[in-house]
From TrEMBL:
Keyword Signal (UniProt): yes
Keyword Signal: yes
Organism annotation: Actinoplanes missouriensis (strain ATCC 14538 / DSM 43046 / CBS 188.64 / JCM 3121 / NBRC 102363 / NCIMB 12654 / NRRL B-3342 / UNCC 431)
Protein name (database record): Uncharacterized protein
Signal sequence segment: 1-21
Keywords: Signal
Amino acid sequence: MIARRHGWVALVLALSAGAVALLNTNGTGTTPAALDEQLTADMRTTLERSGPEQHQHAGHGAQQEGEVICGVRVYGHEPRGAGALPEVRTVYGFHLCGVAEPGRPWDVAVKLAGPVILDMTTDPPGIQVVEATADVRFIDRLHEMFPPEYAEVASREALSEAEAAELRRRYDEAAF
């Protein structure tokens, strides 16, 4: 009788664990954390492949020769319920990129930074940075372009300390 009771308890625990795992993967086999990691990697790769000549925002034209090295932070994506990378149409985040010219230290490198939107429906993904205009302040433009919950985060948070440290390490490796 006790063995039978333990068997039922084990069965209930196993079914509960399976249900939790299924809920945490959105039924797609991809966990939200894994999707965030994929989106972070894709955002970094997209920005680094774009080249310095394509980073023409905030009134700066980065025409220098060098490798673009970026740190990124993903704030969120649309549709919000997407469970796998192919379902994601738009990614909202922050980028800080440096153009790693040979022998040029980080402190004097050309840098490009700010909130960014990736259009994942195109190949390569489209890049749109948030910029002020002559008539629209930066914070107002941010709220025009980002959904409210992501705009709120973007107005107060940039890279994590770990991401910033990794960006500097990768930059120094590329420049020296």
